[in-house]
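Case study B.
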Amino acid sequence: MLNASLKELSKQLAEKKLSSVELTSFFLQRIKTLNPDYNAFITTNEEMSLAQAVDADKMLAKGEGGPLTGIPIAQKDIFCAKGWLTTCGSKMLSNFISPYDAGVIERFNLAGAVNIGKTNMDEFAMGSSNETSYYGIVRNPWDTKAVPGGSSGGAACSVAARLAPAATGTDTGGSIRQPAALCGISGIKPTYGLVSRYGMIAFASSLDQAGPMAKSAEDLALLLNVMVGFDARDSTSLQRAQEDYTSSLEKPLSGLRIGLPKEYFAKGMSQDVENAIDKALAEYRKLGAETVEVALPNAPLSIPVYYVLAPAEASSNLSRFDGVRYGHRAESYSGLTDMYRKSRAEGFGPEVKRRILIGTYVLSHGYYDAYYIKAQKLRRLIAQDFAEAYQQCDVIMGPTTPTVAFNLGEKSADPIQMYLSDIYTSAANLTGMPAMSIPIGFGEKNRPVGLHIIGNYFKEAQLLNVAHQYQRVTDWHLKSAV
Amino acid sequence: MQWEIVIGLEVHTQLSTQSKIFSGASTAYGAAPNTQACEVDLALPGVLPVLNKGAVERAIKFGLSVNAKINSPSVFARKNYFYPDLPKGYQISQFELPIVQGGSICMQVNGVEKNIRLTRAHLEEDAGKSLHEDFHGMTGIDLNRAGTPLLEIVSEPDMRSSAEAVAYAKTLHTLVRWIGICDGNMQEGSFRCDANVSVRPAGTVKLGTRCEIKNLNSFRFLEKAIDFEAHRQIEILEEGGTIRQETRLYDANKDETRTMRTKEDANDYRYFPDPDLLPLEVSVEWIEQVKQTLPELPQARRDRYMVEFGLSTYDVSVLTASREMADYFDAAVKLLPTQAKLCANWIMGEISGRLNKENMEISTCPVKPDDLAALLIRISDGTTSGKAAKTIFESLWLGECGKNVDAIIEAKGLKQISDDCAIEKLVDDVLAANVQQVTDYRNGKEKAFNSLIGQIMKAAQGKANPMQVNTILKKKLTKK
Amino acid sequence: MNLSLNDVKRIADLAYIEIDENQAEATLAQLSSIFNMIETMQSVDTSAIEPMFHSQSVSQRLREDIVTESDQRVLFQSIAPQVQEGLYLVPQVIE
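Model:
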């Protein structure tokens, strides 16, 4: 059960060799035993998880199950799940029992999957190390002195430590791909608009996108089949024909053109990461792919652009947390304005406040054009760079992160250093393109290295195919931290 | 010094949709607190807005009715500020690109036509309500109204007196109800005015510093607030002072305006395009479709009544005060096209008076346009007299005799004697019995004529057609 | 650009987040370095470029004007800090 793929688990469930209750109990037990070491989960609820497992077994007994029926999934605590404490990693929501289900949760429920618990994350998804969570740090299963990455740190850890067969994450600037890379698992951020944002607590609305995190590309394809779909409650949700992301996994890669942006292979990338990337590229050439150099001249501006746009949207998105209708309200205050100020000062952690302040500033009178509009223009230039690059290649590859996982506490005092963790990943959010990370080996201190694969809009199936073909001939994704 | 008052109005009209602008909660007025505030209206974490087609359609309707440009795309923006009745901490509104741009409204002030230019009209969401009483020093928040669609209609500073401002507001009020986009209920806050008021020396061009007076929810308050404010500003300027740009509140009890906030502590709203909503595109086909649903507009109706029926400006303006009234008139006059003036008089007189007395709307008037027409036909063909018609009207109102005019006339004996022979006989009888008065008349005593008429009418029990009596009597008296 | 302590206090004020003198000082230092990084944006001429507010060029989808929501006040107010008679209570709003 520990290392089985979703396909294998699904088969065992369908053949009644295993029940969902057994599988769910197994992982609940693992969480109970091991979560104190990792802190990957903020909330578990045995009763609710097992109730879902019982229902799943009934579905399976009637032969009505789908590929994910009965499979426990760790849900990032950013998704509202009815009856579940939903904190978004914040003290602000430490008492928020969601009265409704997010679109993503609904789709998993409908598929008969089991919610095994809510995973830890950076507060409001703002962070790259999971150190900004109000509910404590998460440890990297490969090395408990290292960060798991963020913001979906708990999700990545839960899969790497085999506390759950698969997990959901969200990605605003790299929050699926960066922790996937640092924890040695696979993760994909789909094209913006494919997965419903309804009920996913907003960080930066025009960049946020949910996606799956799992052990392999094949698992990701199965998860994506459930997660992707139109939701009328989300104005940015796209109406497209339903795709089967598993259908093209086995396509050979001969003739695939891999673009290597020279900007991503310049200074900044550490030697160990570069070595692993070189080996992975060599493997791809063996699989019949060719590599071409491409240019993304404006891509290095992704970080400043991102740190204008994401905080701007966040500053407004987080205004609803005022202690009036739900969430944290300060104990003592004098008057209405003071209640607001104190509730928000107490409810938000330092990184969240920092980003609210940045965002408030760049939108404020006299600075809007110089920062916000400027950044939106650069965003277009970055998107144009990618569009041009895709004239010469099918997918773009590079490192997911400049270094392997850093030590806990190493960068928490220096926001800029922390922000640079997303240097390769945030462009895919700015442009809305799909991108993923897969494990391709180990670097310093035997910590995992991730390969970043970026595709053109709606090329998820191609990305998964490219990743799966690599995973067919290598076994990095099968290595277990535990 | 002579001062000129300059006024521009911003009017918030609640659009008459079933559901809210960004959620599927009901907009019905008067529900128990927070029972019509859904997860989107409450701004629960993770919820998202989806735009109501009905609200957009109403905005298009308005734009077309004032000959404005319908912008496509238009863009929704967030206006950021904190207030407990604003759950998201921002209001979704339109800022740089509103759906309706330009246009104008033609109004009548003291019988003179004046055109007021519109700057724009944009879609936005209403806020909730704060209740200050009975909560031990706390304020209660009801979010039922939060998310109700509003069309904010902004005029150019084209008005020069409180009378003009009121005329404009009334014309607009009529229009939005006329085209069916707003119920116009001012008590319930469906139509709220903010007035921008400034003064300048007469004959100068540069606008003075303006003050905005918020939330004027009746035409009377609008008038009084502007009068007070203009007077206040003139007084300050005449004493050598300067006007401070600020937002003011009108206190109806004291009949004065007072400072709400100054420009200095005005909020920095940090407008930016709402990333949860995409640019709103309105196709030419859609605009054309909406155009087909537009009724004949008040101005066109007024012009038609004057040309077609020769009615006076006054009559026309009363008849077009509401679409229901005008439609009533149209339906009635269609059945007796040559008697438009009679028709107008009855609607403005008998019907309006009775409706007023009963506190009813013309749409629920028990006397329907065809009832009225049937009655008026009987007046004009001489079957019944104008005086008797009032009795018939009463019967129609009460629904007597199956609301059949002829049956009522029959049942109540209200038929007029219009037969010449019958009248001649009556006249002859009266003349024979009053030889003295006939002589008096012939000797130049004009008064005797009226006395004779009176006696004839009395003999006819009031049912003789007075015109005929008059003619026949005159003929008989001058005969010999 | 040079951010001042007053700027920090002003934006904290706009954001309704209480901040004391020490925090303001520390925040100033951090924000200054972040804005120095952000300043690198200004190196590119974007005068001829249109801003890109959304990654997909699609237009707003519209909802039919139908009431789809029913009363869930009891559930929604079960998580509220303070309610009375169906109203959310806040300290007195002074107008």
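The mean pLDDT of chain C is 94. The remaining cases will be described in the next quarterly update.
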